[in-house]
Design a protein that fits this description.
The protein is 20% helix and 25% strand. By secondary structure, the protein is α/β, with parallel strands linked by helices. It has a three-stranded parallel β-sheet, covered by helices on one side. The longest helix is centred in the first third of the chain and has 13 residues. It is globular. The termini are far apart.
Length: 64
């Protein structure tokens, strides 16, 4: 199953991603984050090299 998580570099989003990847190997997660205040790549250092995880810098409020 593919999941799109927005704001995944924050505290709640990153813990959600880690929880999902540990509990189910069938998940593929795409994390979209604008890298504003509260975003921290260190929160996901344990999963950033996983083939089941991909980070995309983007702002979901950007209409273009």
């Amino acid at each position: 199953m593919k999941l799109l998580v927005t704001g995944g570099l924050g505290f709640i989003g990153s813990n959600f991603i880690i929880h999902l990847l540990k509990r189910n190997e069938d998940y593929e997660i795409i994390n979209v984050d604008a890298e504003h205040t509260g975003s921290n790549h260190k929160n996901l250092r344990d999963v950033k090299t996983s083939s089941k995880y991909k980070f995309v810098k983007g702002d979901i409020t950007d209409k273009e």
